[in-house]
Design goal:
Helices cover 17% and strands 36% of the residues. It is built from four helices and 27 strands. Helix 1 packs across helix 4. Bound molecules: 2-acetamido-2-deoxy-beta-D-glucopyranose. 2-acetamido-2-deoxy-beta-D-glucopyranose binds next to loops. 2-acetamido-2-deoxy-beta-D-glucopyranose (NAG) binds next to loops.
Length: 412
């Protein structure tokens, strides 16, 4: 009984995870840097998609990519949104595995949003959501309360007589008019300035004084009168005093960003390896997106001169963003690197839906058998047993100890 029970419990685990994922409605998140390529994952594992149909849309309206039995947007199908023309492809050799993932090349900021991958012919109809976040390539990191220069340069143009406009999301930050006047947005009054003498070199950079955490976000530098109009994006990150995410390692004695390697990926786990260097004593930790510290194996701290290095391994089994955080205790400097892990086994796979239904059916059968057993026992007059068993139904391994284990085992 015991080995069976173990294997059954093992089989139940992914199902439970599956339920948690699909029940929480969390979309898979893909983060890429502006200009690089993004693969949006979508899998309906039990199906051969070659003669089938799938449809990708953005924000429920823009047609991104449709495939229908070999006809798609790259071989003549009309109707693809302008934004995606010539930038989206599917993986032909993966179709037979039910892999409907697409690749978007040369991502733009405007590609950020929620994508849906829809299988209209699947019964019941299946739709999955994938969130794409495109991060600006230019990032500025400053400590709270210090000044930030946001760079924006339009090559060798004298822009002293030109309009340029800085925004943060939809909010005004700074406007330079063609007559040289400037205005500042309500949240930035008295805090933003431009570099007057640099205008003739096409430099539209601004300086924000005394930055607050709330200033963090994505800024755009817009030249509305250029033909075509030009927009540049800059990400500003205002960090707590100690939590300085310093990509350049400029702070004196500060550690460079740790490096993350991913030496091994399997279907249901990923091995992540973090390599951190810095001034000892150095502490390195793996954290998940909820900021929980995860259990991991580290190599002993090795020291070379005044530098020390640590490698920290962790095997993760869940789709999430994982951070490797290095802390230099002596100078209270903290820095991290982040990676997104997508575990196909744990993702809301459409193909598992059959499984899932199977699980529900088996559960119902089990419940029925269980009730019959209880009723039988009650009739025999052994009421205490039945009474004792009922609360058990709530614990981790409900009903698995009874005979129906075989039913479940075969069904799985
Ligand atoms: C789907 O195919 C792409 C391209 O080969 C691959 O990168 C991706 O990992 C595949 N996805 C799954 C879930 O197998």
């Amino acid at each position: 009984m015991s080995p069976q029970r173990t294997s059954t419990t093992m089989e139940l685990l992914p199902l439970v995870c599956l339920c948690l994922l699909s029940c929480s409605g969390d979309a898979v998140r893909v983060v890429v840097e502006e200009g690089s390529d993004a693969v949006l994952p979508c899998l309906i594992s039990t199906e051969d998609l070659e003669g089938n149909k799938f449809d990708w849309k953005k924000d429920d309206q823009k047609e991104v990519f449709m495939y229908d039995a070999g006809i798609h947007h790259n071989n003549g199908r009309p109707g693809q949104d302008e934004q995606f023309k010539g930038r989206v492809s599917h993986f032909q050799d993966q179709l037979m595995n039910g892999n409907a993932s697409i690749k978007i090349t040369r991502t733009k900021m405007a590609d950020s949003g929620t994508y849906s991958c829809d299988f209209p012919r699947h019964q019941p109809r299946q739709t999955f959501n994938i969130e794409l976040v495109v991060d600006p390539r230019i990032k500025v990191v400053v400590k709270e309360d210090s000044d930030a220069v946001l760079p924006c340069l339009i090559s060798n143009n004298d822009i002293s007589g030109q309009v340029f406009d800085w925004k943060k999301g939809g909010q005004d930050v700074f406007i330079h008019y063609s007559d040289g006047r400037t205005t500042q947005g309500p949240d930035f009054t008295g805090r933003v300035s431009h570099f007057q003498h640099q205008l003739q070199n096409g430099n539209a950079s601004i300086k924000i004084r005394k930055t607050k955490m709330a200033d963090s976000g994505i800024y755009s530098c817009i030249f509305p009168d250029l033909r075509p109009s030009q927009t540049f994006y800059i990400k500003l990150d205002v960090a707590f005093d100690q939590v300085l995410r310093d990509r350049t390692g400029e702070v004196s004695g500060a550690a460079p960003e740790p490096t993350i390697h991913r030496p091994r990926d399997t279907k249901d786990s990923s091995l992540l390896q973090c390599e951190a260097h810095g001034v000892p004593p150095l502490k390195v930790e793996w954290k998940d997106s909820d900021n929980n510290t995860l259990k991991s194996e580290s190599t002993p701290e090795s020291e070379k001169g005044d530098r020390s290095s640590i490698t920290l391994n962790i095997t993760v089994t869940k789709t999430d963003n994982y951070r490797c955080v290095a802390t230099q205790k002596k100078i209270s400097h903290q820095i991290f690197a982040e990676t997104s892990v997508y575990i196909q086994g744990a993702a809301p796979e459409p193909g598992s839906n059959g499984w899932f239904t199977g699980f529900v059916v088996v559960g119902a059968v089990l419940g029925l058998v269980f009730i019959v057993l209880i009723v039988k026992k009650c009739r025999k007059g052994s009421t205490p047993v039945a009474a004792n068993r009922q609360p058990d139904a709530d614990d981790d391994t409900p009903m698995i100890e009874t005979e129906p284990v075989l039913v479940l085992h075969h069904a799985g």
